[in-house]
Structure to design on (393 residues):
């Protein structure tokens, strides 16, 4: 039977898309390498955590998976730098909200999405089969798996930064090396995190310490060169805690315990087109990968989902979801937004990494002015929360 949509990739973005399209009553096929499992480190928290914006939380709520999650709200974000005097504080109250966002455990969120998918009979899930061929023609898309071929009206590549769908369709992309890896872990801190997301721009790269639902446990995402990340991953736990504490200028008190440390390469890329050929879309990290410094990758991926589901609402159930012209507006708007966010990340990264005394002076003056800028700062916060003008429908 022909599916209305075949989705490759059941990560955060693909699983949520399958769920919301399935809830519209559409026939959806989801293809994923392996079913996600709950992963918990020695301190009882997943080593990978994700900052969820209010707009993303609303979408997860619409899908029925938000309520049961063990998420930690944060009400304030403090950003400061290694060489500076300038500091920016973003508060939820300044934009009339109770919280800026929530930190969720990656594997818990994934598990909740997959549990909800299990309950939808019109979503067929294909786990573990290696894709052998991808073919997209004028009337349908075909995906060859080891014993069967899936046929659908629309193919959605949500298969992450190294997307097979993207390569199979020969989609052009701009790939900007960052020179960074991210070291992720969980730590126990003496003074507690106080519901604040802390971010310090070190010359070697940004360091984020994010609250968890336990007042003394925080997740760490530390961007740095691959050599430094490797060294800090392998170093003795006590030495790591001391280095982290010093890098945070002891603002959070003693870093008492550290969990296992994992290192991810950081890329930054953007495809030429989110709808590269008729009947195919790329979304989430398959379409663009953003430096994790602002915790936006999954959130902009969820924006793709929100816009995709809204466009799909204009097509009747059992109608042709891949019909000519359906996706051009979606693709244009999503790419423009991705370009804007990637540009913003590059400016942030370069500004804070510049070492000359002049850049230092400009940065400190600029940061202080920005902190006192009122309207400009509020608009910036709204965009980061996914509730500003540029976030799209
Ligand atoms: C250290 C770190 C911290 C981060 N922190 C944040 C944060 O705080 N907030 C935030 O918004 N974002 C954050 N991000 C980014 C965020 O994790 C990603 O943007 C998000 O996970 C992308 O989701 P995705 O579903 O598009 O891709 P992925 O999560 O990569 O999922 C892709 C899925 O496709 C599957 N797949 C791949 N190839 C195939 C194939 N051939 N066949 C079948 N299945 C396939 C994979 O198994 C995987 O399940 C962070 C990233 C890093 C590295």
């Amino acid at each position: 039977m022909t599916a209305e949509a075949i989705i490759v990739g059941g990560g955060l973005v693909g699983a949520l898309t399958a769920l919301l399209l399935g809830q519209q009553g559409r026939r959806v096929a989801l293809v994923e390498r392996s079913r996600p499992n709950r992963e918990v480190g020695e301190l009882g928290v997943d080593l990978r955590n994700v900052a969820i914006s209010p707009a993303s939380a609303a979408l997860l709520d619409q899908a029925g998976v938000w309520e049961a999650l063990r998420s930690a709200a944060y009400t304030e974000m403090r950003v400061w730098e290694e060489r500076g005097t300038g500091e920016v504080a973003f508060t939820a109250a300044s934009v009339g909200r109770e919280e800026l966002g929530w930190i969720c455990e990656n594997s818990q969120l994934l598990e909740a999405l997959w549990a909800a998918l299990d309950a939808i009979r019109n979503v067929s899930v294909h786990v573990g089969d290696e894709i052998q061929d991808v073919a997209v023609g004028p009337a349908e898309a075909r995906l060859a798996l080891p014993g069967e071929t899936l046929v659908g009206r629309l193919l959605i590549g949500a298969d992450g930064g190294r997307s097979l769908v993207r390569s199979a369709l020969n989609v052009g992309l701009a790939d900007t090396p960052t020179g960074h890896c991210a070291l992720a872990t969980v730590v126990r801190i003496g003074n507690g995190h106080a519901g604040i997301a802390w971010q310090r721009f070190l010359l070697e790269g940004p360091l984020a310490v994010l609250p968890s639902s336990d007042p003394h446990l925080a997740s760490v995402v530390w961007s740095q060169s691959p050599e430094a990340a490797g060294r800090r991953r392998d170093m003795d736990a006590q030495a790591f805690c001391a280095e982290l504490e010093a890098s945070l200028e002891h603002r959070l008190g003693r870093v008492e315990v550290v969990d296992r440390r994992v290192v991810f390469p950081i890329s930054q890329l953007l495809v030429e087109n989110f709808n590269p050929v008729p009947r195919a879309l790329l979304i989430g990290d398959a379409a663009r990968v953003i430096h994790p410094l602002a915790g936006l990758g999954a959130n902009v991926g969820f924006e793709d989902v929100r816009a995709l589901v809204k466009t799909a609402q204009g097509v009747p159930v059992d109608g042709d979801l891949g019909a000519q012209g359906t996706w051009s507006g979606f693709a244009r708007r999503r790419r423009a937004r991705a370009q804007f966010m990637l540009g913003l990340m590059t400016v942030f990264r370069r500004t804070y990494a510049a070492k000359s005394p002049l850049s230092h002076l400009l940065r400190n003056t600029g940061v202080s002015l920005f902190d006192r800028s009122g309207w400009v700062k509020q608009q910036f916060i709204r965009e980061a929360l996914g509730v500003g003008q540029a976030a799209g429908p």
Q: What stands out?
A: The radius of gyration is 21 Å.
